[in-house]
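Figure 3 (text version): structure tokens given as input.
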């Protein structure tokens, strides 16, 4: 099966559940039998090594972008660990303070070279029979985030129904997204103000207001679930609780994204 496409998962600020969505979206595809590669491009606050419980990273995404290794050296096969039907590959960013400082001080020239590497990454992953590539980006407007958006086929912006979050997303779309001819969708996370409800959704009027304010289509709404908020970061609901409403909602979103990539 050929590659379907590259997805970037972005947000205007931290705390929206961006990484949670990215990881579980990748897990949904891998459980369904697709070969998936999730790449940590959140160099300001790398979290995938914690989520996947990888204490030591032999080769990081940082080293790949620095030109010190190939992407094949970076990718860790988690398929056996999580018993997925398809390959579940992860490229992890270095979470050390020294690495974070280094990535935050890169020059514009380095960022341009990093973008070239991301643009050619597709062919390298196609050789490894990867069907979906998912970038977990840094929140806000950083060059690493812009590079992720520019090198992806579809961008998913995760936000919560909070005024500050909506306004921040509006500014971010105006500053960078309107300059790209990129398919972009809004995913509203923690959509229900009632944390005890598994089925509650935003009022239809509010959804339309958000969609109109951002001028981007909403691909889905995921309610706020107490058990997800209280769960360990390493607990992947899409794999451990496939019948959970969170997983079901994300499966519907995954299907829409897949259809978008193939049209």
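Below: residues designed for each position.
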């Amino acid at each position: 099966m050929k590659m379907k496409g590259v997805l970037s998962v972005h947000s205007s600020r931290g705390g929206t559940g961006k990484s949670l969505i990215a990881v579980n979206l990748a897990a949904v595809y891998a459980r369904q039998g697709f070969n998936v590669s999730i790449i940590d491009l959140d160099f300001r606050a790398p979290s995938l090594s914690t989520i996947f419980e990888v204490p030591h990273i032999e080769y990081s995404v940082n080293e790949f972008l620095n030109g010190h290794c190939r992407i094949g050296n970076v990718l860790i096969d988690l398929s056996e660990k999580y018993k997925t039907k398809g390959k579940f590959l992860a490229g992890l960013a270095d979470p050390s303070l020294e690495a974070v400082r280094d990535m935050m001080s890169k020059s514009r020239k380095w960022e341009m070279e990093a973008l070239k590497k991301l643009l050619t990454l597709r062919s390298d992953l196609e050789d490894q029979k990867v069907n979906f590539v998912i970038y977990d980006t840094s929140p806000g407007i950083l060059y690493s985030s812009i590079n992720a958006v520019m090198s992806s086929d579809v961008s998913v912006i995760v936000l919560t129904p909070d005024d500050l979050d909506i306004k921040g997303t509006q500014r971010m779309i105006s500053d960078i997204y309107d300059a790209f001819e990129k398919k972009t969708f809004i995913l509203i996370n923690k959509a229900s103000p009632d944390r005890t409800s598994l089925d509650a959704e935003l009022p239809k009027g509010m959804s339309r207001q958000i969609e109109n304010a951002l001028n981007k289509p909403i691909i889905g709404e995921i309610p706020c679930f107490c058990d997800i908020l209280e769960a360990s970061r390493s607990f992947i609901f899409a794999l451990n609780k496939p019948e959970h409403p969170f997983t079901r909602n994300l499966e519907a979103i995954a299907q829409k994204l897949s259809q978008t990539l193939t049209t």
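The first helix runs from residue 18 to 31.
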